[in-house]
Amino acid sequence: MKERRCVALIAGDGIGPEITEAVRRVIAASGAPIDWDERVAGLAAIEAGQPVLPEETVEAIRRHGVALKGPCTTPVGKGFQSVNVQLRKTLDLYAAVRPVRSLDGVATRFDGVDIVIVRENTEGLYSGIENRVAPGVVTSMKVATESACTRIARWAFRYARHRGRKRVTVFHKANIMKLTDGLFIECARRVHDAEFVDLAYDELIIDAGCMRMVQDPSRFDVLLLENLYGDVVSDLCAGLVGGLGVVPGSNIGDREAVFEAVHGSAPDIAGKGIANPLALLMSAVMMLNHLAETEGRIDLGEAAGRIKTAYNRALAEGRTTRDLGGDLGTLAFADAVAERL
After folding, report:
1. For residue 104, is it within any domain?
2. Does residue 173 sit in the same domain as residue 233?
3. Which residue is catalytic, options 13, 69, 126, 159?
4. pTM
5. Is 13 one of the catalytic residues?
């Protein structure tokens, strides 16, 4: 009998519970021996009378080493700090990884897009160090450390080599931010030249890189970026293949990893049963592959492959949700994927 693996599950807010249920249905149908330890965060935690990120949720992730997370609401310009930011800082999830690829059945302006964005996840402007220095004047500090820049560069190059990728490209603005972005590319060059000369390496100033991206995304393979640039460029790349609803996401550290849908909680359609669960399902496939690679769980890797093949077939056959031109609801799409396993 296959050993069962327990995973922390955070359904999230808005459409989160609906798409989470759809993903659970597909994983169960695949035969993957996954059990769920359900926890709360975000508005769901506040409504339960708890902090936005309860300590027991964090401890569950530490205990299991891995979590699957639905979207959590983040107020704009006020209110509580992003759950995602808190998780990344608390668990030191320093590598945000977002694979972006073209999908059959999802019509876009480009074909053959296959890019992986690796984003430093713990510092930069997202360190959140802001000050009001005078009436009407505020500052925000961009933080870059040699240790963080070096470890994300090494992580990206290792990922590229392990996945058979050929090139790592850094987007930067070191022509203006000569110290912070200068340190980032200095560390990337050093790691490449010392350990990964078998891989091609190049650098582009980010504005020029974005222009080239929308001209011809096929020229890019693995992108390595600091925190803010990675946040923006990963969404830009998602737009090349159909949007945030068709790309997975993960936040990975040396001990824990959180896999999540990177789109919002969409409260305007919550409870209507029409949300697309594909992004969270793709993130769950990433999670299964992560467990297969880090723990030698061949059975979980096989389940991940079957699920990926099944949702690719469903998309190619037009058995999709309304946002992708189909007519299926959330759970009906999950059933369509399950039927093709």
Report:
1. no
2. yes
3. 126
4. 0.93
5. no
